[in-house]
Amino acid sequence: MNLENRQIWQIAAGDTDRHYADMCLRFGIVVIGPGRYGHMTGTVNAVAEMRKEGISSRQITMLQQFAAEIKEGDIAVLRIGRSEVHGVGIIRGKYSWSPTLMDVDGWDICHYWPVEWVWKSDGKPKLFQNALNFGNTLQRLTQSPTTDALFSWLSELPESREGYAISDLPPAGRPLSIDALCQPLYDYGISLNNLSGLKDCISQLQALAKWYGTYSNRPSEHETVTHLVVPLLLALGWTPQRIALEYHQTGIGRADVALYEYGNRQDEYLTAIVEAKKFGRSCLRAESQVRSYVAEPINRLIVTDGIRYGIFCKDENNRFPDHPTAYLNLADPRDGYPIYGDNCAGADEALWLMNADWRHNLPKPGIVGKDIAA
């Protein structure tokens, strides 16, 4: 790869314990946020909105730099921390903004550039001890004694791949009202009285989540379970007799919440495990929990920060998938979340999968006698 007269950008992909490098590599993009204020060069004055909301000048300047100073043909180094390189690519196309990236495991990273990756880590990052910088998500990479080995390696990489073409991001899911969110539950036979209580609960949780965010009151994990998770479980039909907090089993470990088919709380009737993270933290990087409970009689693993829920259901091989079966963001419910994979169902299906009345392989309600091909 020719490095002469080219800008080289180091772009962070989250933190060491919560990152989205695999998403960037999968879709061929580098991203930055916050994105909820809109396109940096769009008709809405995103900068004015950010200043009104108290976004720092440094963050605004970085977004402006990302949109205006990166050029096609520049080199992108996708990093995590100060030492890990997860991808190296060439900037292609043009700066864009997509609502599909509004929620990537809690990250709001709608601003992106297409990238042709000429090297990808495939789970094994290239290490250059302390050669990369903390601080801004976006920074120029310059040559120095600390980065000499990195620059030497970059120069050995191929320039381009034959036949490369920019791929479009999948469209964002359609936003759902609370009524639309709960409608499938009615179709499955949940009573209107129960649905009324669920709708009230969701409204209250949305208000509480907004309060937490507005006043930067980040609840502890215990508070997240108490004030956010348990109220939703109760509204979804789980009774206190079937909800065990601080579940522990020898050889398996501790879980925040265990859900049972019946009220006797015998392990043979354990049906779901809920792992809670602090509000605003990653809730989808649950590989360790998935492995821990794979041999148990449970068929659902639910991971959450109290507002965002990822539901993993065992497949026909009695294994949990790598990507969620369904995803729900109570603050922004949508009918699909394609960023999590083609088979990830939306918020309405997620509520049903979390419901106490859910049963494995129960067919979806259909219209009897209607010719669906008509």
Q: Span between N and C termini?
A: 55 Å
Q: Helices and strands: which structural class? A: alpha+beta
Instruction: Using the coordinates above, name the CATH class of the largest domain.
Output: Alpha Beta
| General shape | globular
Stretches where pLDDT falls below 50 for ≥5 residues? 367-374
The CATH architecture assignment of the largest domain turns out to be Alpha-Beta Complex
Your description of this structure?
The chain is of the alpha+beta class. The protein has two domains: 8-155, ph1033 like fold, CATH 3.10.590; 178-354, Alpha-Beta Complex (tt1808, chain A). The protein contains nine helices and 16 strands. The protein has helices at 21-27, 46-52, 57-68, 148-155, 178-187, 192-214, 221-235, 287-292, 347-354; strands spanning 8-12, 14-15, 18-19, 29-32, 75-80, 84-91, 96-97, 111-120, 126-127, 138-140, 243-249, 253-260, 270-276, 300-304, 308-313, 326-329. Strands 1, 4, 5, 6, 7, 8, 9 and 10 form an eight-stranded mixed sheet that branches. Strands 11-12-13-14-15-16 form a six-stranded mixed sheet. A two-stranded antiparallel ribbon has the order 2-3. Helix 5 runs antiparallel to helix 6. The longest helix is centred in the middle third of the chain and has 23 residues, at 192-214. The protein starts with 7 loop residues before the first strand and ends in a 20-residue tail after the last helix.
What labels would you give this structure?
374 residues, alpha+beta, ph1033 like fold, tt1808, chain A, 2 domains, six-stranded mixed beta sheet, 9 helices, globular
Topology readout:
Elements: E1 8-12, E2 14-15, E3 18-19, H1 21-27, E4 29-32, H2 46-52, H3 57-68, E5 75-80, E6 84-91, E7 96-97, E8 111-120, E9 126-127, E10 138-140, H4 148-155, H5 178-187, H6 192-214, H7 221-235, E11 243-249, E12 253-260, E13 270-276, H8 287-292, E14 300-304, E15 308-313, E16 326-329, H9 347-354
Parallel strand pairs: 1-5, 13-14
Antiparallel strand pairs: 1-10, 2-3, 4-8, 5-6, 6-8, 6-9, 7-8, 11-12, 12-13, 14-15, 15-16
Helix pairs in contact: 5-6, 5-9, 6-7
